[in-house]
Amino acid sequence: MGRGKQQSHLLEFYGIDCDHCVDMEPLIQKLREEEGLGIRRFEVWSNEDNFRVLQRLDQGSACGGVPYFYNKHTRGWICGATTYQNFRNWALGNSYERFLPPPNVEDKKDGKKASAPGIMGIFESVKSFFETVKTEGLDRIQKRTEEKDKDKEQQEPRKKSTLIQRGAFVAPMSAPHMATDSRRCRMDAW
């Protein structure tokens, strides 16, 4: 029994609204037209199953982001947007660079276009990416913490009133009512 259409051995993991993922779409189309190679796409920002697959393939979080391209035949991968030639070499199983940002990448900080980056440009690009991931992660953690605190505040009055009704709380004691033994309180002072 044949499966009909054979699935591509080339995979892309992307995120919705990811600028670098969008930048790669014309290159994916060009690869399909010139080489006849399709790429299976997996959205990871809203699909946990796809995210788990990405984590398995991106061992040790060597890339740690999207777009992430994986070649099942060679087990080779590319992290982030790249040049067409590098992308094509990866797809065909030829020599390629895992981290090679494309030339003329717009620098978001000052709005200028940079020429093909040297090693420092690549370093700055990777550094900027990780700073963005860190900031977004910290923002998500802060938001979750605030939501949990808000939920806790809403639940505490109900808990307290229920405990008071059950007699769990007693009148607070002031210093003169404390016994000399710090491990216990004098009950006759109430």
Architecture overview:
The model is unreliable at 106-110, 112-116 and 173-190 (pLDDT under 50). Strands 2-1-3-4 form a four-stranded mixed sheet, with helices on both faces. The protein has helices spanning 19-35, 48-57, 84-92, 119-165; strands at 10-14, 40-43, 68-71, 76-79. With 190 residues, the protein is of the alpha+beta class. It is 44% helix and 9% strand.
Labels describing this entry:
disordered C terminus; single chain; alpha+beta; 4 strands; 190 residues; four-stranded mixed β-sheet
**Proportion in helices:** 40-55%
The shape, in one word, is elongated
Please state the average pLDDT score.
76
Largest sheet: 4 strands, mixed
Task: State Rg.
Answer: 28 Å
Strand segment tally:
4
Main sheet: strand order: 2-1-3-4
| Element pattern in H and E | EHEHEEHH
Q: Spans of 5+ residues with little confidence (pLDDT < 50)?
A: 106-110, 112-116, 173-190
Quote the beta fraction.
5-15%
Treating each run of at least 4 consecutive H or I residues as one helix, how many helices? Answer: 4
Distance between the termini: 86 Å
